[in-house]
Amino acid sequence: MPTAIRLLNLGPAHWLRTQSVYHALAETMTVETPDTIVLTRPSQPYLCIGYHQELDSVLDRATCRQLSLPIIRRRVGGGTTYLDANQLFYQYVFHHTRVPATVERLYAALLAAPVAALRALGLDAELRGENEIEVDGQRIAGIGGGRIGEAAVVVGNVLLDFDYDRMARVWRAPSEPFRHLAASALREHVTTLRAKAPRPMAPADMEARLLVEFPAVLGRPLERGELTKEEWGEVESIEKRLMSEEWLSLHANGGQPMTTLKISRGVFIRSAEAEVNGWHVRAALRARDDEIVQAILESEPARDWSEAEARLRGTKIRDWTRAVL
Question: What is the spatial distance between Cα 158 and Cα 320, in angstroms, rounded to a whole number?
Fold first, then answer.
């Protein structure tokens, strides 16, 4: 009989606990530790940045404080996410010897269950690219992954609903046109169960479906469990570390506002500037697969750039200055 996967269903939990548990599981994992799936939802909203990101480039700390949004840096990759009770988290912490060795195959194996769960709820869901779950071509889940110690970690969420406005407010955008393009692209390319499901969905609906699909897809039974004493001790230690200014400021490199923001698979907002025929031109560019979809240009001295903005549509990002001329 296949070895059971331990299930830790934390339910609604303190925001910090929704991150610290899977970190603790990963850091204490050995080959004897059971592979574990964690299900949870944060009781309070917060922001989470990826391991490789510079905090002061991607988030405006003053706005975050004004909105009472705490910030945490996780130890796996991915982008900045706004998280709240309208999102159901699923977190895999498996020993690296018991999952596929390549990143592409790892995501395919572990994300098959949430894709199947969404389909069972009546949505046209599929895994696109390496690790994006989409419904009708729109992203409905945020996903990150990486190796922590002996553990392979894949964490994801399903958006029951989403606060688009709050996410747009906290970005450390290099300009308001950049923020405007990012906010509109977010609404266009990121969707939710509330928008797509054929009937109203509660977190319990998605949770129940995942509990069916995890064992069916992975070919291993689930066994409800608890954290061990050692794991609880690591949770407390991890929570202190994740909240430290030293950890939050990891990768600090001057704190300049970001110039690129990924919205979804192939969709990016980019900021650029150049000297063009005596004008200093600042561009906010929305691109799909490196092709400009929309542009907003500003300059010193000021002038009307509407004709140039129209010419930029369909141009490759690298050629934007030539299209402006």
Answer: 36
97-114 mean pLDDT: 96
**Whole-number pLDDT of residue 252:** 80
**Buried/exposed code over 96-112 (b: 16+ C-beta within 10 A; e: otherwise):** beebeeeeeebbebbbb
Q: Residue 275: which region, alpha, beta or left (left: phi > 0; alpha: psi -120 to 50)?
A: beta
118 neighbors 135 (Cβ within 8 angstroms): yes
CA-based Rg of the chain, rounded to a whole angstrom?
21
Nearest to 287 by CA among 323, 248, 318: 318
Q: Which of 168, 163, 145, 143 is nearest to 60 (CA)?
A: 168
Residue 302 to residue 282: CA distance in whole angstroms: 11
CA atoms within 13 A on the CB side of 197: 19
CB 126 within 8 A of CB 120: no
Which strands form 138-139's sheet, in the order they lie side by side? 125-128, 132-135, 138-139
The Cα–Cα gap between 55 and 80 comes to 9
CA 34 – CA 59 distance, rounded (Å): 36
Label residue 291 by pLDDT band (50, 70, 90): very high
pTM: 0.94
Secondary structure of residue 126 in the 3-state scheme: strand
- In this prediction, residue 251 has a pLDDT band, given cuts at 50, 70 and 90, of confident
Directed axis angle between helix 229-242 and helix 17-28, to 10°?
A: 120
Helix ranges, 249-319 (H): 306-312
* Residue 28, both tokens: 């204490």
Among 143, 136, 131, which residue's Cα sits nearest to residue 118? 136
